[in-house]
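Margin note from the TA: students keep mixing up input and output lines. Inputs are the sequences; the output is the structure of the whole complex. Example:
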Amino acid sequence: MILDFMRNDHRMCDHLYAEAENMLLIKESEKALTLFEKFSITTLHHFDMEEKELFITFEKRTGMMGGPTQMMRYEHQQLRSLIESMRLALRENRTDDFFGIGESFMIMLQQHNMKEEQMLYPMIDRALGSDARLMVQTLQEMVP
Amino acid sequence: MFKGLSLDQAPPISVVLRFFFSAAIFGMALSVLTILYPIHILTLADPFSLAALHLLFLGVISMSMIGSLFQMQSVLGGHPIPSPLGNSFIIHVLLSIGIVTLAGAFITQLAPLFVLSATLLGSAIVYTVFLILPLLFKSSLHNTLRGMRIALISFFITAILGIVMANAYAQGNFSEHHITIRSIHYSFALIGWIGALIIAVSFQVVEMFYVTSPYSDWCKRNVFRLIPAALALKALWLFLNLPYIWIFDLLLGGLLMGFFATTLRRLRERKRRVSDVSIMFWYSGMFLLFVSLIAYGSYLWFEHEAILTIALIAYALFALSIILGMMGKIVPFLVWFHLSSAGYLDTPIMSHIIPVKQIKALFLLFILTSLSAGIAVYYPPILRITGIFSFFMFAFLGYNLISALKLYRYTLTHSQRFEQL
């Protein structure tokens, strides 16, 4: 339940990033910036859903306060910083830097996503049990 | 307890790089052998051919794959490999000396070298499997994990059969089952170890890094049921000398062909259109896999030895292509990752760590090596040129790795960290 919902959200973020990158490839800088902002909002919202709802509920259920969720929060911080660096590069028309930072960002993001999808979300699904459906509703109602 | 990759749990950079450097060195040794003895190397079961084969599959391919496992295990397998410095040192030393002695044993036919190489390589592989496999049973099961388990179990079986054969070489006494054991040894090495691991990693990497549609759940679930089943039944059929053994080759070939077709489609329809050398390596890898499968299918029909050689060379180059493509991403990422995690202000971006033109040059050398190797099967003197191309390719790989490491060390000593400000 949680796994499916959050995995789909990961894919949506990936697609938005790819679209922004593709626009920059064909030198459509304005469109690239617009799509990048959309990607940034969606991704940061995804992190918020996790940090403000999902992880807190999971920690309360399991008592695992300093474990996987803490690691994910730490990685979110690094990813936020990379998004900011990319935004700056895009605004200053430093295209090569954007792609260069984007490469590191993409690998880091995908490693992060793999860990969540393969380990953390299944753990959360097990911990929440039948309440997982309610959690998905709560997450859907959160406003970016 | 969850122990997925945190920034603190990524293995030290030296852990992964020592395996990659060694792969480049063994690649150069293989190239020298190819330049010096081209005709011998193209003769199946010739001692020089066997030495070259093991330098390639153990020295280059398995060495790189074990190095990658140290990096990927915490991400894909869920639990990092414990004591990575110590464990990688033990595995790397045993494996390296084992490969040198095995190649030496084939060339010199000295019995003690066969015994020594079997002991060292057997220890290295069994140690690797016993180190990583239990970690894969601690995590919640997913398809990539299933593939990694099959790969490691196959690697273990390959090693055990290798020890049995090395013992036969040492004693100069080959049992009636020798050819059967050799066939099973090759099948588990090529399909079970190399094939399954590449497929398992592809299921994650292709979809996520290039933003493609996902592989079908049916494929992901069943490929790792069918591969071990087909390999086990093929081994049984071989031992019992039963008819219609080609059915299992057909099944394995069909699975790999399915992997080729679905991966190619995903790469062509990928959403990320950024021009990336790793994509070129993936395309060339898929093309070589296709050539290998067609050649092997033709060999089953025509039983022409040259076609079998093409199948084997193309399969090795398929694996090498994927490995080189992934190395071009893993190494710059690791350098960037370790420096930025430690808070160095002047951490170079990935494209400055190994510049794109250097990775493109490596790709060009790979293509020249592959093309000349294909021609050499029918015109053996060309293999010397293949050896020269591959020597430069592996030397250039080593150069890329050294320049990345130099930049890493330079940043460590010359850049300020956040906490120093």
